[in-house]
Amino acid sequence: MNLLDDCLLDIFQRLDSRIDRDSFGLTCHRWLRIQNTSRRSVQLYSSLFTQSNSSPLSQGSFNINISAFHVYKLLTRFQQLTSLSLSGCTELPDSGLSQLQFFGSNLQSLNLDCCFEISDTGFSLVASGCSNLKSVSFYRCNITDIGLTAIAKSCSSLQAVNLSYCMNISDYGIRSLSQECRQLRSIIMSHCRSITGSGFNGCSETLIHVEADSCKLEPDGISGLVSGGGLEYLNLSDLSWCIHGDGLARIGQGSAVNLRVLNLRMCRNATNEAIMMISKGCLVLQEWSLAFCHDISITGWVAIGWNCNNLEFVRRESIGEIHDLNQLTLITAGLSLLFGINHILMMGLSSEDTLQARAATDRNVRNSRRRKKKVALS
């Protein structure tokens, strides 16, 4: 019986057993070709990255350095890939990506984490052959604004980008990304010390997730981050060394109305004024980390309690200047008006103080709710 290729492909795709699928190509060259064209995802790991659940293609290869020849053979054999990971291939040269010009048109996801030898030349090869990319990860890569701009212009459908520890990326590259890729939903740029945030001005409303911890953000840059209006998750932890005064207040000036998760951990210069502005401008916040923000006093905490009525979780690792139990009771009472009374995490209290504060809080909450109900009815 001489079955058509489409029939053989349908049979292969219906095989449930991994052993059967791996054995399919051993029948003959034709069946091997069918098997090769059906593969959609490949993950290669060098000695830097190993995983116990890796696929047969990567098992046994993590003890060797992945070379340009390995990638060439891989891409010429599997020409219909939609997902490719070369993470940890630290010695892979630019030439290792040359075949992407010919066989990368179907790729939607590309991971080049820690590919230290890939330069802008290699990233330009990605740009020229992988126009349908939706997700890329360049963690600790040596990509510069030139390479990022080339990718942004050629891969306008990008939705998720990881640039963590890409030290050569500045606002110029970010501007190209935010203006060319109008479907961008997520960007991770942790520890990119050359980024101030100004490149995000006028970004798309599709941008909902930003991680910019330990960046060199400026107040105008924070305004740019939220300028699209669609942001739901924002991580600005550890900005104390660059943000001073009320720079964080820009978050609450009207553009972050959809923000649900905000991480300001280690933002030691966060002021009461900034906290009040954020609490009034981000009314749908559900989770807010203020760990090690020591300068926030009762004024800031009460503002959170009265304005953020959807807040479910507040994190504070230390109570800073708040040592008096009555002060703590006022704070917890204000916050306990929220839905998430059991999710207020304050470290540094004795168990006895915690119990006393909870008892006093319960009384204050009941009284406050009665007063608010009377105001609503009047």
Summarize the topology.
Blueprint: H1 5-13, H2 18-24, H3 29-38, E1 41-43, H4 68-77, E2 83-85, H5 100-103, E3 109-111, H6 120-129, E4 135-137, H7 145-154, E5 160-162, H8 171-180, E6 186-188, E7 209-211, H9 219-225, E8 233-235, E9 261-263, H10 272-281, E10 287-289, H11 298-307, E11 313-316, H12 325-336, E12 344-346, H13 351-377
Parallel strand pairs: 1-2, 2-3, 3-4, 4-5, 5-6, 6-7, 7-8, 8-9, 9-10, 10-11, 11-12
Helix pairs in contact: 1-3, 6-7, 7-8, 10-11, 11-12, 12-13
Notes on the protein architecture:
InterPro entries: FBXL15_LRR, Leu-rich_rpt_Cys-con_subtyp, LRR_dom_sf. This is F-box/LRR-repeat protein 15-like leucin rich repeat domain-containing protein. There is one protein chain. The chain is an alpha/beta fold. The protein folds into two domains: 1-38; 40-322, Alpha-Beta Horseshoe (Leucine-rich repeat, LRR (right-handed beta-alpha superhelix)), CATH 3.80.10.10. It has helices at residues 5-13, 18-24, 29-38, 68-77, 100-103, 120-129, 145-154, 171-180, 219-225, 272-281, 298-307, 325-336, 351-377; strands at 41-43, 83-85, 109-111, 135-137, 160-162, 186-188, 209-211, 233-235, 261-263, 287-289, 313-316, 344-346. Strands 1-2-3-4-5-6-7-8-9-10-11-12 form a twelve-stranded parallel sheet, with helices on one face. It starts with a helix and ends with a helix.
